[in-house]
Amino acid sequence: MLQRLGSVEQMDVLDFGCGSGLYSRLLKERGARRVVGYDEAEGMLRYASRREEKERRGIEYTSRLADRLEGQFDVVLGVYVLPYASTREGLHAMCASMSRLLRPGGRLLTLPIHPAYEGDPEYYRPYGLRLVSDRPHEEGGAVQLELSYDHLCMMRPEHGPDWATAGHVQEER
Ligand SMILES: C[S@@+](CC[C@H](N)C(=O)[O-])C[C@H]1O[C@@H](n2cnc3c(N)ncnc32)[C@H](O)[C@@H]1O
Fold this sequence. Notes:
- The protein is an alpha/beta fold.
- The protein has 2 domains: 2-111, Rossmann fold; 121-165, no CATH class.
- Helices cover 25% and strands 24% of the residues.
- It is built from 5 helices and 8 strands.
- The chain has helices spanning 2-5, 22-29, 42-55, 88-100, 160-164; strands at residues 12-16, 34-38, 59-62, 73-79, 102-111, 129-132, 143-147, 171-172.
- Strands 3-2-1-4-5 form a 5-stranded parallel sheet. Strands 6-7-8 form a 3-stranded antiparallel sheet, with no helix packed on it.
- Helix 4 links the parallel strand 4 and strand 5 (102-111).
- The radius of gyration is 17 Å and the shape is globular.
- Bound molecules: S-adenosylmethionine.
- S-adenosylmethionine binds next to helix 2.
- This is Methyltransferase domain-containing protein.
């Protein structure tokens, strides 16, 4: 992803669906001038903001795409967020929101799902996930994400409340 992105030196970048802020932090490290992380899940933003309070990288986090953000960015990055749209109309609306944020000539870079996506639901079990579908896998087909908190060995107890409000158990397309 970062290779495809190329240099972000002195660029203004919006990380759409920033989650815990992983990419937002990487973008800042790579010299982006302004990084705004946007996510609709308050729990994820709380985690990202807490890290920002400690680390002071100069990243802004927001749960609302205010009008003043429109046309302000050289790059909009959307990693693993497009599949959250549960209808085609929802997908169009998300793409339209992303493109409104760009300056003329700006770039929208998204990774809808990992290129090595594995259709077997049991494949992700060791990581505490199951991706299940009641129909054979097809482009645009619905997939249910199941999380098992017992398996999340990387999760520390203090993250519990944030994960619980992060809205992660939902229907994906
Ligand atoms: C799988 S996470 C990926 C997080 C981050 N991009 C990463 O790669 O680490 C997807 C995130 O997108 C957020 N999201 C889903 N739909 C969204 C929307 N319409 N607007 C903003 N955030 C959204 C979710 O709350 C979640 O935090």
